Every structure is written in C-alpha cells, then in structure tokens.
C-alpha cells in the first residue's frame, strides 16, 4: 500500500510501521514533525529506537499483540490527539499506524442519538 501518497497533504502527521516497528512511511506533516529527529532518514529505521522507556515497552506490546493506544499530549502549548492502531492488508495484521492531530483550543462536542 502506498501510504505516503495516500496521506499526502493530510494536515495530521501519519507514520506507518510494520509489525516489527520498522517505519515504512511518513506523510509530509510527520516528516515536518520529526525533522529534528531525522525526518526522512527515519524511514527504514525502527520506531522502538525512537522511544524511551516506558513508551518502548508499550510499543513492543502494541506491535506484538496488535493493540490500539489512544491518548492526548501537550508540547510547547500545542495539544494533540495521538491515535495508534493496527493496520491490516487483505485481513492480515501488518503493523500499526500513528495519527497525530492538533486539537483546537475550542472544539464543539456533539452528543448524537442512536
């Protein structure tokens, strides 16, 4: 699957790894986000080496078990939603995709009926 072109121009950072943690693709926003860490030189490297403990152990479990991990962070006053989830190809687990979206200061919340 051509992840880099699929998410080209998408305003959130998208990083895709195989089931061993090797970074397969990063969209433009992810390359910008991780420029100080190597940007496109991160492609082909292992995401485990980019994470200190305890994040490394959490990522190892996610990769091994195909787990989803969702949380929010704040860095330099910018709040983000981080959504890490397994991706599949033809029904087979292939790795995980991380989506990082900036959360606006004010954001509407809707409760919809069934």
In terms of topology, how is this protein built?
Layout: H1 3-6, E1 13-18, E2 23-26, H2 28-33, H3 55-65, E3 69-75, E4 78-89, E5 92-102
Antiparallel strand pairs: 1-2, 1-5, 3-4, 4-5
What does this structure look like?
By secondary structure, this protein is of the alpha+beta class. It has a single domain (13-102), classed as Beta-Lactamase (2-Layer Sandwich), CATH 3.30.450.20. The protein has helices at residues 3-6, 28-33, 55-65, and strands at 13-18, 23-26, 69-75, 78-89, 92-102. The chain has a 5-stranded antiparallel β-sheet. The protein is globular. The mean pLDDT is 91.
SSE order: HEEHHEEE
Q: Which range best describes the helical content: under 10%, 10-25%, 25-40%, 40-55%, 55-70% or over 70%?
A: 10-25%
Q: What name goes with the CATH superfamily?
A: PAS domain
The outline comes out as globular
Mean pLDDT: 91
Please provide the count of β strands: 5
CATH topology: Beta-Lactamase
Radius of gyration: 15 Å
Count of individual domains: 1
- What composes the largest sheet? 5 strands, antiparallel
For the largest beta sheet, what order do the strands appear in spatially? 2-1-5-4-3
Strand fraction = 35-45%
Structural class: alpha+beta
Head-to-tail CA distance between termini = 35 Å
> What's the CATH class label?
Alpha Beta
CATH architecture: 2-Layer Sandwich
The total count of helices amounts to: 3
Which consecutive residue ranges, at least 5 long each, have pLDDT under 50?
A: none
Features:
114 residues; single chain; globular; Beta-Lactamase; 18% helix; 3 helices; alpha+beta; five-stranded antiparallel sheet; 35% strand
